[in-house]
Amino acid sequence: MQEEILTTESEECDLTDAFLRGALLLQEKWVMMIVHGLLDRPMGFSELMRKGNVNTTTLTQRLNLLEHAGLLTKTIHSTMPPRTSYELTESGQALRPILEAITKWSSVHLAPLADPGVCPGAEASSPCESSGC
């Protein structure tokens, strides 16, 4: 009987570990915005930077983190000047229903932004692109 309890606790630990790994990755600032931006098509570095109004260093760190985690691939195009694009992998695309659920939940349970022209987390004077945050 004690063996059953240990198995159950072990399974809970595995579940908690899996949740924590995902939560720690997704809680990093800009990670969900980057993934959301790449859901429908690949984007270049500059386009991602403008879309979220994120600085170069932070964007580079988050893109490297997502690439290392297997959520996106980086392609360096042989053009002049050289161009880099980022695209979600199957693992990255698997986050689509989660991000859609967050969007649905937010629209039902949270008040609209006071100033929809300003991205949350961005500098107060930095407007979003016309496509939104």
TrEMBL record:
Name of the featured protein: HTH hxlR-type domain-containing protein
Any Pfam family matching the protein: HxlR
Top-rank lineage group of the source organism: Bacteria
All copies of domain HTH hxlR-type, residue ranges: 13-114
Top-level taxonomy: Bacteria, Bacillati, Armatimonadota, Armatimonadia, Capsulimonadales
Keywords (A to Z) from UniProt: DNA-binding, Transcription, Transcription regulation
GO molecular function terms noted in the UniProt entry: DNA binding
